[in-house]
What does this fold into?
Amino acid sequence: MEEGSLIFKNVSFSLPAGGAMLVQGANGAGKTSLLDMIVGDLPPVAGRLIWDSVLCDSGGLQLKRWEAERFCWFEDPGLPQITPNITVQQQIELFSINSNTHYSATHVLKLMRLWELRDLMTNILSTGQRKRLALSRLALVARPVWLLDEPTLGLDTQSIALLEAMIRDHRQRGGMLIIASHADIALENAVSLRM
It folds into this structure.
């Protein structure tokens, strides 16, 4: 993509508490770019983001504080949120620092089917195990909006069902969700955006 090229235009949506949106489209259609714009990592040429009737700044420290309070952002490239050369238990404990949920590290290890792996080093986990470990952060860091970029890649059917259960729980608590995905994922009453 050339710098300054238009990725998409005329995209508009709103989500109520408990709402979900599934963003789908071909590779390069702008799914990840849309998520990047929402968190302020990619400035839009035009448009705005409004949260609870407040226009959000399009960059800088104000947006980063706003982002940290509102978003839990998950994207896969190499799973950079996983620290190498520590155990799974230690990684969960790192995720738990400043945790603002009612879940304990032990509960999340069991919930994410990682309990038996807790003493293994993170760098020897399989792709699916590393993905489950990265997704465990969603249960430990309560944010009103989850932005998930291709969250099901590398997951087996049991892990996808686990993710879908976490999503249902998040939405029942009033949380919002935007997923960019090629795969179908069970999202009841979700808005669909085709890029």
